[in-house]
Amino acid sequence: MNLTIHALLAHLIVCTVVIHGQKATKKWPIGVAEKLHTFGSRLMKNRARDKSEIAAKIKEVSTQIKELQGSLKMVERTILTEIDRLLNYHQIMHELKTSGTYIDNMFRRFELYDDDTTYEDSTLKDFAQSSTSHSKGHLLSMMNLIYRLVNPVGNDNKGLFDLIMKDKTTK
């Protein structure tokens, strides 16, 4: 920076001297004006080259920023898609676990009902009703929920196998 200021100052002095028609006189020793002019011209020429180098660097950095911006947008889309897929997968797995636990508990209760034990009629009726009822939270609704988790209704819904296959294709 200082070199450029000195070069401009030297060039300004030379131009001032030439404009006023002063050459080597008492005020200027012989050859000083010519040396200042040569020095200033050389620095100004280098300044023009420096400008083109700076412009090339700026263009290069701008291109890299543009490429990076495109890459970041692609990564952003991928992350948003993956977050949605992972949330759906987590929700399905949670519902499968809850349903599976309920069905497993129902089966264990069923295994306890053998011919040698006696239970009250109300207990057996309750078990039979929960095994055959279509009400939410009973066996058939849980089985239907599991089926819908694997094979969802509608084009917009993704089932468990769809999410697993999408995971395999993205890796």
From TrEMBL:
Record's signal peptide: 1-21
Superkingdom per UniProt: Eukaryota
Entry keywords, A to Z: Signal
This protein's name: Uncharacterized protein
Source species: Bracon brevicornis
